[in-house]
Amino acid sequence: MDKDLKMGPVKYKTKPKGGSKCQTLCITFLVMYMIFFVPPVNGFFLKTCRISYNAAKCMQNQLQSVPQDIPPTVTGLDLSKNLISRIQPSNFTNLPVLTELALNQNKISQIDSFAFARLLSLQWLNLKKNKLVKLAKNVFHGLSNLTELRIDHNQIKFVSSTSFQSLTKLKTLDISYNKLQTTIDLHLILQYLPQLQELIANRNELQTFHSWELTNCSLELHTLHLSDNPLKDFRITADVFPNLTHLTIGNSCSKNTMKWNIHNNAFLSRVSSLDISGLHMGLDDMKSLLEAVNSSLTSLTMNRMKHNISTLVNISCTIPTMSTLRICGNKLELIKSDFLKLCVNVTELDLGTNNISDIETNAFASMKHLRILSLRYNRLSSVPSVIRKLQNLSKLDLKFNKITGVECQDFSNQTNLTELNLQNNSITALKTCAFNDLVQLQVLTLQYNKINDLNKAFQRYLPNLKYLHLNGNKLTSIKNEVFRGLRSLLNLSLHENQIKELYSDSFVGLRNLTEIQLMSNQITKQNLDTGAFNALVNLKRLDLAINHIKYTDSEALSQTPFFNLSHLEELSIATQHYREKSHLPCNFLKGLTNLLRFSARNTQIVYLDKDMFKYSPKLEKLDISSNDLGTLSPQLFSPIQNLKSLYISRTTLQSLDFLIDANLTNLQFLQARKNQYSVITEDVIQSLPSLGYVDFQGNSFMCDCDNAWFLNWTISSAQTQVFDAYNFVCNYPEDFKGTKLLDFNLTSCSVEIGFICFVSTTCMILCFMVTSFTYHFMRWQLYCAYYLFLAWLFDKKHQNKQAPHQYDAFISYNTHDEPWVIGELLPKLEGEQGWRLCLHHRDFEPGKPIIDNITDAIYRSRKTICVISRRYLESEWCSREVQTASFRLFDEQKDVLILVFLEDIPTYLLSPYHRMRKLLKKQTYLSWSRATEHPEVFWEKLRQALQTGDDLSVVNLQLSVIQTQ
């Protein structure tokens, strides 16, 4: 590890030599404690990267050099889209198991010799879209296991004779979009690549290709791409490509006419796939080219041709082995009857992007064996009638045309069709008989049309359909058992429609459906109440995101929407539309016993019942981010002990302490961004022993010793990655606002063991001396004082216990809060509820010392109500009242203290008030600021608190519902 991944536990300051025995014993005890009692939980962070599935992701971080804090265990490293300009041997010195490296889209202009020499395990390297002009000597030295190299889209003109010398196992090389000029440049590359199978050299500056310039090359090439080079002369005089099966040689940009010269047609006798798109060549040379592959060609691509395409089709269709023909981008507005008459052996035909608006009836008459037909990106206004005669057709692509409707006879006799694509047309409605003959159809794509009515198109036909895509249309309701005939359907896409009505019979018949997408519609909770999903007994994935599902309370539903979906594994109700507060019923997930993933992201939920997940015990991933929850109960997670991923970002959480008792021992991923907590405690992290990745980005951290353990844990090395920790910013205290959390100096938080031992020993000696001196000279006086104090204390306690209580409660408050006490508290407690209250401005005895008045008022009242505000905390007399009430609480062991907060006070502001913080840990309290929506609940809880007796546990149980967080 490098300097940013420091090893070892927290270091404590010790003296280098000559330490005392006390110091030695303390250190020994500390070490023993850390070994036997501190769990081995550690963390790590990367300054500019994150780890995901054993791969470091560092893309788009404005990096100018390769980061040096990458763990040596990663197998993948993505440095794409940065500003790196140079690669040096020192960049990759400690990545022994790295197999994939992405450096594409940087500004790399120089790669030093031996720059990758340490990457002995590398198999895949991407240097695409940089500024390389020259490949230096031994630039790829050491990459003996590399199988794929991509250096396309650079400006490479020069290649050293030893650049590729080490790449003996390379199988794929993409060097397209560079500035190589001759076959000799290719020779410098190919001579060391005995196992190369695919060479992509498109869009260079090659003007000639001569086989004799590839001397001493033992080539195993299967694929050669030379398209978009300004080739003028292509000559093969020897069998340099004995295994070549795929050749791409077209050029749609150059106006040069290429000369073709093959001495022996046997040299290309194994080529089965040929792409001559845009090739400018004499007709005789074109015939010679096609004759050279006459015995082996199965696939021919002739896009954007400059010759008369009809002539070329007639020539190519005489090749008996050719079965695939692609002629796109040739501006064929009309397909005539004689255009394809010689293509009797073609089984796959692509006529896409030709502006076709009409096809004559007999255009495909000779193509009896045609199985795949693509007419995508044309101008057809209806399904061509010629389709009906293609009885062996299995795949038909009509996407991106102008078809307005499907007639009953459009697909007649298409009993073998398995895939039909009508995406992005202008279909408005489906007729009942539209697909009546498509008995073998398995995939039907109708998305992004204008369909507003399905009629009965899916009620009787399409018995084998498995995938139906209807998204992006204008459907407003699903009713009348519209999908009853689709008994084999597995996947149904209905997202991005305008569906606002679902009925109990909406999905009847879809018993085998496993996945349905309904996001981005207008579905409401009333639609869920209809039981629309009851028929989907085998459903595994249901996406209801971005709808209008909103519940106003968390009360249990009489009929739950998913009670019949016992096989469902994934459910999403995430939304982005409304901003009104909502709830989720406590039994919303009832019936989902096999649910693994649940998302309720951005639904403005303000409360989750502790029994929410008791119906889904197998839950592994939970996303409740972007809600206004404020707090979470540990009991919420009790039923889902298998949880592995938890997303709680932007949920206004003020603490993560709920995780301590949540018992999430299997949690591996935690995302808790942009909340309101400022301290991460040791107990929180140690309660998650399986945690591998945590994201605390965007929180307002506190730069003080409360975060010392978290800081040390973050920069330690082990299993847990703390994402983006280097950019954590402090917001408290004011002096550190805006500074980096990891820049906080922990020196003041270190444990000075020697100093502690010195102070402790000195104090013990002084105490012993004072005690001895006092006992020797004043022991009789101490005896008398001791017995007098016991007598006074007994009398005082006896007097207080025997005297009847004069008041029900003493009100302790600051004068600045008197308007609330007089205007709100007094009318409610004395006026409506009938309690007797003691207030200092009316009930204190004139002329009596204030401290005596306070003591008498507290002991003559059954309870003491402290009305706490920021002014209260700063008041000296209020502090005395709290102190006296605390003494009574300790003395009598009765619940005599009630705390009422008039305003929310952050925990860090309570730090100076030790006694108040101590009380808050033991006493339950009420919050007036959080009771503004339900003040009647606040007064009822206060009445219950005044009415209770001495049992502390009962009172706490009653008040816990509305305590401040």
Multimeric state of these chains? single chain
How far is the N terminus from the C terminus?
41 Å
Helical segment tally? Answer: 16
Kindly identify the CATH topology of the domain at 806-962. Answer: Rossmann fold
Helix percentage: 10-25%
CATH architecture of the domain at 806-962: 3-Layer(aba) Sandwich
CATH homolog superfamily of the domain at 806-962: Toll/interleukin-1 receptor homology (TIR) domain
Mean pLDDT: 85
Shape: flat
Q: Which structural class fits the helix and strand makeup?
A: alpha/beta
Please report the first level of CATH classification, the CATH class of the domain at 806-962: Alpha Beta
Roughly what fraction of the amino acids lie in strands?
15-25%
- The low-confidence parts are 1-42, 951-965
- Total number of strands: 48
Q: In this structure, how is the largest beta sheet organized? A: 30 strands, mixed
GO molecular function: signaling receptor activity
Subcellular location: Membrane
Transmembrane segments: 21-41, 753-770
Domain TIR: 805-946
Molecular structure report:
The chain has a 30-stranded mixed beta sheet, with no helix packed on it. With 965 residues, it is an alpha/beta fold. 20% of the residues lie in helices and 15% in strands. The two termini are 41 Å apart. Among the domains are: 59-170, Leucine-rich repeat, LRR (right-handed beta-alpha superhelix) (Alpha-Beta Horseshoe); 806-962, Toll/interleukin-1 receptor homology (TIR) domain (Rossmann fold, 3-Layer(aba) Sandwich), CATH 3.40.50.10140. It is flat, with a radius of gyration of 40 Å. It contains 16 helices and 48 strands. It holds the Pfam family LRR_8. It comes from Kryptolebias marmoratus.
